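Dear Dr. V.,

Thank you for agreeing to look over these. As mentioned in my earlier message, I'm a first-year student in the group and I'm still getting used to reading structure tokens, so any feedback on how I've presented them would be very welcome. I ran two proteins. I've put each sequence directly above its structure. The first is here:
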Amino acid sequence: MQSRGVRRILPALAVAACAIFICAIHFTRPARADEPPYFAIKNARIISVSGSPIASGTIVISKGVIQSVGANASIPPEARVIDGTGLTIYPGLIDAGTDVGLGAAAVPAAGAGGRGGGGGGGRGAAAGANVPVSRGPEDRPATTPWDFAADMLKTDDARIATWRDGGFTTGLVLPRNGFFPGQGAIVDFGEGERAEDMVVRTSAALPINLNGGRGEYQGFPSALMGQLSYVRQVFIDAQWYVEAQRAYDAQPKGNQRPRYDRTDAVIAHALANKELVLWPGNTEVDIERALKMAPTLGARWALTGAQEGYAVANEIAAAKVPVFININWPVAGQGGGRGGRGGGGDQGDPLRTLRFRDRAPSTPAKLNAAGVKFAFASEGTGTPKDILRNVAKSIAAGLPADVALRALTLGAAEILGVADRIGSIEPGKIANLVITDGDIFAEATNVKWIFVDGKMYAPPPVVEAPAGGGGRGGRGGTPGGADISGTWTLTYSVQGEMQESTATLTMAADGNITGTMTSHLGTVPVTRGRMNGNQFTISISVPMNGDTMQVDMSGTVNGNSMSGSMAVMGQTLDFTGRRPGARGDEVGAGYEVRQ
């Protein structure tokens, strides 16, 4: 039985948090504030990718991990249950080539200094008198392989929420500037105060950019052949560095000490650990060059770009190299021709450019037919919806839809070496899920909820354009959707006694909710809130004994009434709410609450 002391503190905690903490009968310790409740999504169609689809099944999530999956999976009594009738659950999508999370690219001020050129320097200032001069490979121009994307993450990058709302829970985040810009990280697109909480793997890939240092240095290497030679020389130097250091360590006496080179040391470490090296090749000529040069580096490598891979699919298959396909298909009106993402205007374009623009979306189907493993990289594609539209173009060009989905999930995870933790819906894997109201590649499909590391998110509603306005638009309130703005009186029961608190909320045009929760013990701000149609999610953090307690509220608004459930420390409670002018009974909650 609960002690009298425990019973006395329960009402105070409930009022302060606008939630209830119902202690277990055999209460031993309070749950940590960062321990999420159980979630159970039932009656949903489940596409696990690693196995056969389940027409109507249940997924149970505990502490950020998938606990069980199946048609008859057992639901824990403390679970927060979501009815998935009519919905489909997919593994969280993976963007295998992006800079989402790194913020906007910094533009150095005129005349500002940069990292020096000699002895392992790299990035310089903008073009001008103070740009470092490189006279040879020993100056290491535009070379910073020791930089980690994991150390550059910015939690305030608005694209994180955009990608997550579109169903992308994970990305291979890559630094961009320089021939060796740094090491890519696998990042979950969750929400948190600390960027390090988002990192799944720190050293996931080592990208190479040809023409990547232009404008950041003067001198060598200025031509393509010089750039190719420089990149190859760096790998040769790294291999020599290892041998020289090994020989010196075996017999230091009487021998000259090898000079330390930071670039050599980092590249040598990447080679020794078989880190994935990303070699670019977008056109047929570039791809054929990559197939000849990259194997000489002594590295485990993958091809990136490959939009003209339809022309050399068999050669890529023979090389047994995985591919990260740039899904940003070339379109008319974008500069860059066949070497980049664009294609220029239609007028005056050579036939080969027009053919490239037309056939690029067929590359995934050609590679699949040849037996090539591949994933999709957004590479500057505007929005997640644009990514899925471009994948749909490849499906229309002959790529099976299930193969396309695998390339966005388990296939990408396998190439990146993290298929043991993400990419499919299996017990024991990270709970990264996207829940939709239809086929994920269908234009009319909407994302209803997303789970990242077991945390639940609701994207803002999609704005439907006015009649004649051109179809679906951006984010914002939905016509006929609820507006949660106002002052609400929340009512709930604490051990049989009715309690009240006040919620003062404001909903922005994009569906975000801000505001405060107030009781006689004080006021706390809303840390996160979203409205989707007439369904809402709100989170608050309540100070408690020098720590914080996370409270998550979910439910439905109907006019001036709301109802739903709150979850705190793994427990749940029903609540109702009214604002001035309310009439009639409250509507049912957005979730089924089990106790």
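The second protein is here, in the same arrangement:
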Amino acid sequence: NEDYPFQDTYFVQPIEEMYLDNKINFDFGNKGNPQYLILFSAIAFIVLVLACVYYMNLAITRSIKRAKEVGLRKAIGAQRSQLIIQFLGESVMIAIVGLMIAVVLSAWLLPYFSYLMGSELSFDLLDNGLLLPVLFGLVLVIGLFSGSYPALFMSSLKPINTLKGKMTGQNSKFGLQSVLVVLQHATSIVLIIGSLVIYLQFDYIQTKELGYSKDYIITFRTRSGEVRKNIDPIKSELLSLANIKSFTVSNDLPTNIGNSTLARLRETDSDESSFAIYRTSTDVDFLQTFDLKLVTGRYFSSDIETDKDKVVINESTVKALGWSIEEAVGNEFYREGQGYLEVIGVIKDFHMFSLHLPIAPLMLTYKNNYVNYAAVKISPDNIQNTLGYIEEVVQKYSEYPFEFQFMDEEFDKHYKKDVRTGKMFGTFTILSILISSFGLFGLAAYTTEQRTKEIGIRKVLGASMKSIVIITTKNFLAMVIIGFLLAIPVAWFFMNLWLEDYAYRISLEWWMFVLAGFITALVATVTVSSQSIKASLVNPVESLRSE
């Protein structure tokens, strides 16, 4: 049709590219989301870097005890390059052991990960020829990266100082270690904010008023021609049971109305004034079953023959046509290929898609002989008996097995991937906090050991445990604050970007950022304080003995 404003276009697409192409409406097959692929690859990389940073800090902490070893090796002729190779070799060996443990853990945790992904995954090192070389390459890179700073640092120590028990240049407040700890905190805070925002958005989705009821409603497909022909007898039999409150049939469920057409106010209007309007056909009990609200006018009646040529529209259609609610009833608009349609009622907008998409114009027509779905609203009492009765009645007319779903399950389908994302994001967040805490613990142990004599002198001069804890923790809390300031713009940018995928969303509030900073500061304080308290409990005689 040359006059039709939208022309069909055909294109060729390789089948292997279809899985990650989720921008086509009503395409077949389960789709992957390339954004999730990028997101979780990035998070996995961040967690891996955090682990490397943790190893660096721990290696530097251990360097106190190995300083004399390095000095002795240098004194008997060891070259700096030999020491670097030794420490890098140790780091690579630890990474190889880590790989072995990771393979075992991956196989053990695979069922849980498959559950999170919603897909059955397999783990076979020999199935993919590239997997083993990539893993060993990754181990080599991680070993060299995480061991580079400790190797360079340890090999730079001067033998004359280390053999005397002195380690120069260790008290710099703005050294590489401090930078790494700040980045650890910043990353943890970003992930905590992300997990909090995702949780609150999903809670908002679950509690937001949808405009229709989804509780205690059973839905099933009317696949059999006999079922469609005998809808009225089936309805009468079902409603005879006290536990069944209402019954309706329609071409689509309120959770996903997929059929659309074009409409405009007048036939003579330009094509540019046309707008897409979704449509579905229902019977007279559609509103009652799903608790849809009628704003003005009336709904279809089985006693009025002419209702088969009338429509009920939603508030968004009224706005698209430029009408007010008061003038909608009795008015007409033009639908492409069908002519003018008279409006007999206006219903309140409801979410017929997920909250990712805005509410669109919709028109409801009176059912014809072909319907796709039946919905039964039941009482919460004796659900199993009610389901058995529904199955018994429907099976009288159907050659297909009785398969049903609760309406709230149908609704949850829209957000399965989002829920999985939230769970995985939360898991990564907990992991990153643990790694950051371990790294901070190692650095705190290193710092307090360096300040053992200072703490001993302070105790001799009368310092209390409280004052010692404050002195030793204030620098770490300062690093948390710097990490918090760095994390705020990063978290705000990425979470705003993520929320843009939802037409209906929460707002980012100041308290979300403060809560994430408080959690990180609390974890840091507890971690560092444990080392400070341990150091303050040491008898000053022990710490000052060598003097």
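From my reading of the second output: The mean pLDDT is 82. The chain is about 55% helix and 10% strand. Does that match how you would interpret it?

Kind regards,
E.
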